[in-house]
Amino acid sequence: MTTALIAEDEPLLAEELADALGRLWPELEIVARARDGIEALRMVDAHDPDVVFLDIQMPGMTGLDVAKQLGARAHIVFVTAFDQHAIAAFEHGAIDYVLKPVAVPRLATAVARVKERLGRAPADLSGVLRDLAANRNDGRTFLRWVNASMGQTIKLITVEEICYFKADSKYTLVVTPAGESLIKKPIKELCDELDPSQFWQIHRSTLVNVNFVAGVTRDFRGHLQLKLKQRNESLPVSESYTHLFRQM
Hints:
- This protein is an alpha/beta fold.
- The protein folds into two domains: 3-137, Rossmann fold (3-Layer(aba) Sandwich); 147-245, CATH 2.40.50.1020.
- It has helices at residues 11-24, 37-47, 63-70, 84-91, 104-117, 126-137, 187-193; strands at residues 3-7, 29-34, 51-55, 75-80, 96-99, 145-150, 153-158, 164-168, 171-176, 179-183, 199-203, 206-209, 213-218, 224-228, 234-236.
- The strands form four sheets. Strands 2-1-3-4-5 form a five-stranded parallel β-sheet, sandwiched between helices.
- A hairpin with a 2-residue loop joins strand 9 (171-176) and strand 10.
- The longest helix has 14 residues, at 11-24.
- The radius of gyration is 21 Å and the shape is elongated.
């Protein structure tokens, strides 16, 4: 029996898609439903579905982020409200899509194409994902999550959870309100990949999430220190970055 996962953060749309699939593909078993990208990845690990119906716009991780992480583990059908310019990226790739709200004829086409591909390895999505990213962000996408080591455990952390990154020997420390972990990605690489409106470099070794900045003080030597929300430590600001906080 072919198995599927539905990843859709709107419950009514998820139910509508499941009902339509039940009519068009009654032998398909929907083994799980996810309401965000992180949950989708966890459920893929738990259920190993053959097909993933993946909403592009989801909290935590977008459908594009999830697809990059999945690679060739499953056949993917994107669920999207994109306009015709973005749809062209699907039409020229070995991948399929369903438009919101769910249209049965379009879903029937997607189902037929997936059935045809089930006997083959899932398609390489790299080219399609690049085209879709270009349509969404004028050619640029930002890092949305990191895989961080906590002892013997690898944890998925979204960038919204991260208070700051700090270089630590050959690793980079990832600090959240709940604790600390390590990644191998250097600060310089993170500077290029993170949204600059959310993460500011305040030192050659430190990137801070501005949403966690509680205030700015000066120490006894006159150097700026950042006070953080949900953390007790303060972060020093190098002289070359003090201009960022002149209005605070």
